[in-house]
Amino acid sequence: MSSIIQLLPDHVANQIAAGEVVQRPASVVKELLENAVDANATDIKLIIKDAGKSLVQVIDNGKGMSVTDARLCFERHATSKIRHAEDLFSLHTKGFRGEALASIAAIAHVEMKTKQEQDELGTQIVIEGSKFVSQESAVLPQGTSFAIKNLFFNIPARRNFLKSDTVEYRHVIDEFQRVALAHPNIHFTFYHNGSEMYNLPISTLRQRVVNVFSGKTNEKLVPVQEETEIVTIQGFVSKPEFAKKSRGEQFFFVNDRFIKSGYLHHAVMAAYDGILKDGAQPSYFLYLTVPANSIDINIHPTKTEIKFDDESALYAILRASIKHSLGQFNIAPVLDFERDANLDTPYHYKDLEGITPTIQVDRSFNPFSDDKETKSYSSSGSGSASSYSGSSYKKPAATANWESLYVGLKQEPDLAIESAEISFESEEVTASLFNDEEVEQSVQNVYQIHKKYIVSPIKSGMVIVDQQRAHQRVLYEQFLTNMTVHQASSQQLLFPLELYFSAGEMELIDELKFSLINTGFVFEETNANHVVISGIPVNVTESEVSIVLEQLLSDLQEGIPENSFSQNDSIAKSMAKSLAVKTGTSLTIKEQENLVNGLFACKDPNVSPFQKPTFITMRVEDIDKKFAI
C-alpha cells in the first residue's frame, strides 16, 4: 500500500504560507516597512502603483545586507532577529518569523537591491514565483530597495478576491500611518501613481500626529503622560467635542508596535464616561512602554494582538491617566461644581494686605435746610485737612395749583364725537391657520407613544408607525429620486463651510463627489486634506453637514460599489439614516400627520431602506380577542 502523507514541494509550501502572511497589497507594505525600520533606516520611501497591485516599492538608507544575507533572506524561517526560543519573550524588533520575504517572493515578481556601507558594490537579485532569475553585483547607494511587482500573478483566484483600488489604497494608508506614527524619528515619504501623498519629516510625537492627519488636529489633542513601575504611558487623546461616529483615528502602540485591544479600548471609553454623546468615538494616539518579558507577541499571525501579564492593572492605570488629563485641562467637570472661578483671587493680589477704608461724615449737612450756599468742611485724618463741597437739599416746587395746567384745553361742543356714532368693521380673528373643527379632527387622528411610535386609526382598526424607520424610508426615496433625475435643490450658505478629513477619507469624498453634488451639495474647493462647501441640500441644516459626511464615510469604510446605481443607493441610505428623526424626538400633531402621509406616499412603505418593517396594523377583531374572557 502506497504512502498517503507526502512532503510538500517548497514552492507550494511558500504559497500556503503566503496565504497567512500576504492577504492584500497592504500586507506587503507592512512587512517591507517594518524590515526597513529594523534596519535602522532614517529615511524610508514607499512607492505604490494601482493601490499596490502593480507595484509596491520600499527604499531605505538602512544598514543593508551582504551577498550571503541577500540570498538567505528569501529562505523560509531565515531571520536575524532571534536565535533561541527564549528570545521570543524579549523582542525589540518588528519582524522575527522569517517567512515574510519567502512568502512574498512565492506570489510576485521581486527585485531586491542592497548594499552595506563598507562594501564597494551592492547585490541585485531578481525572483519570480520563488525561482531565482538572476543575482549580480551592481553600483548602489547604501541601504535596501525592494520592488514587488504583479502581486498574485501566479494565483489568479487570490487576485480576483482583491477589492477595488480605492479600498486597497485605504488599507495601504492604514498600514503606512501605523508605522509612521510609531517612529517620528524617521523621515517617511509616500507616493501613489506618481503623486506625493505624504512627506513626514523627522519631528516630535505631536508634530507627527498633526502631519499625518493634517487639518486642525493640533487643537483637538489633549496630552497624556504617566509613568509607573508597570507601564509608561504617553500620547494624546481628543477633546470630547471632536469625537466622531467612526473608530478611525484610534491607535495603541506597545513598545513601538501597533496593536489592537478591545480591553484597552474599553479603558479609554470608561475614562470618557459621562462626557461623550451616545455612539461617539474619541480619537487617541497612546504609546505604552512595558518590559519586553511581560508581554507575549506571538499569539496571532498578524502580530497585532498582545497578551499582557497584568491586564487589570494596565486597565486601571490607563483609565486613571486619561481621566486625569481630561480633568487637568478642564475638559472633564471638576468635583467642586459650586465653585465660581470669577471669585478666585488673582495671583498678583495674593501677597497684598487689605486696606481698611476711612469713613468721612459731613456733620453740618441738613437735608431740610433752605440754605443754597456751598458749605465746606474739613476732616482731620492723619493730621491733614481735606475740603469738600456739596449742595444742600432743595425742596420741590409747590404744585398746589396744578389745575391751571389744563386751562384752555376744554373740548369745544362741535368737535365732540359721540361714541355711539362710531362703527367698526367686524373681523373674526382666529388663533391658528386651521379652524377648531380641523384642529380637533387632527388631534383625534394621530397620537405619539413614548416619543417612538405614531398611532393612527384606520377603517379596520389602527396602524402603529415606527417614526424613525418611517422617516428613513421617506428621506431615502427623496434622495434616490434627486440623484437619479439630477434635480436636487441646494441652499446656498452665507459663509462656506471648511471641513477637514484624513487622506483616506478625502479619497472617498473625491470618488463620491459627483453623487454628492446630485443630492444638493455644492463643493467650492477640494484640497488634499479639506473641502469647502458653499451649498447643501434643502433638508440638511448647516450643523448637520459634518455629521452626514462622517456617517457616510463610516458606512462606506468597506468600499464603494462599482456601478453608479449601487453607489447612489448607498449614499441615500447613509444620509437617510443620519437625518431621520430619532427615537425620543417629540413631534407635533402636524409633523406626525406629514410623516404618516409621506410614508404611505412612498413606493415601498412597508419596510425601511434597511429592510425592517416601518409599521404594523391591528384590527378591531385582534383587539377584541385581547379582551375576550
From TrEMBL:
Keyword DNA repair: yes
Keyword set, alphabetical order: DNA damage, DNA repair
Renumbered residue ranges of the record's region Disordered: 370-393
A Pfam family that the UniProt record links to this protein: MutL_C
MutL C-terminal dimerisation domain span: 445-587
InterPro entries: DNA_mismatch_repair_CS (IPR014762), DNA_mismatch_repair_MutL (IPR020667), DNA_mismatch_S5_2-like (IPR013507), HATPase_C_sf (IPR036890), MutL/Mlh/PMS (IPR002099), MutL/Mlh/Pms-like (IPR038973), MutL_C (IPR014790), MutL_C_dimsub (IPR042120)
Bias-annotated ranges (Low complexity): 376-393
Keyword Cell division attached: no
Domain DNA mismatch repair protein S5: residue ranges: 209-327
Family of the protein in this entry: Belongs to the DNA mismatch repair MutL/HexB family.
General function of this protein: This protein is involved in the repair of mismatches in DNA. It is required for dam-dependent methyl-directed DNA mismatch repair. May act as a 'molecular matchmaker', a protein that promotes the formation of a stable complex between two or more DNA-binding proteins in an ATP-dependent manner without itself being part of a final effector complex.
Protein name (database record): DNA mismatch repair protein MutL
Source organism of the structure: Flavobacterium pokkalii
Gene (UniProt): mutL
